[in-house]
Amino acid sequence: MSAVQIAGCSGAGKSTVAAMLARRGLVSIDADAEPLLARFVDPGGAVVTKQPTAPDLAWLAQHSWAWDPTRLDELIRDAAPATLYVCGGADNQHEVADRFTQVFLLEIDEPTMLARLDARQEHHDWGRIGETREYLRRKLPVLQDHLRSSGAIVIDARRPLDQVVDAILCRTQPIPPRSRPS
């Protein structure tokens, strides 16, 4: 069983990378779209059943986006023998880091993040509602610094999507042996 995490802040392209990997025939998930995996929890760890429509910084400081480790294990097991590409992140990802053979950081700068959040029409309004935009502005450098310092492989996610995916795959896919001349 093998899993690779593709992490980054909102707007980095995690969901888009998940879709591209799937189109290329690989097993991938958009972790945010897995409701039994990713969810908000309160300070005691209880799952939040109703979140505010426009969260403010105070609410966001008291709640975290967390993965259910048991559900993550199930998803990895169900993908076997293929490698599961888990595209997303969570505030408790350090607790499940041992599940991943590699972690990639889709790195972007703040102007790119904000432009992508503004352009996003599908998926969700995260980054455009309540104080989520300011929350993400503050979180971007902290998240990226943490991932870099923990050894994540940095991918410049400002590049075209096919180049981003190729950069990930060239570091995760086995290289076929060269044929020997007869």
UniProtKB/TrEMBL annotation:
InterPro entries xrefs: P-loop_NTPase
Protein name (database record): AAA family ATPase
Organism the protein comes from: Streptacidiphilus monticola
SUPFAM superfamilies linked to this entry: P-loop containing nucleoside triphosphate hydrolases
Taxonomic lineage: Bacteria, Bacillati, Actinomycetota, Actinomycetes, Kitasatosporales
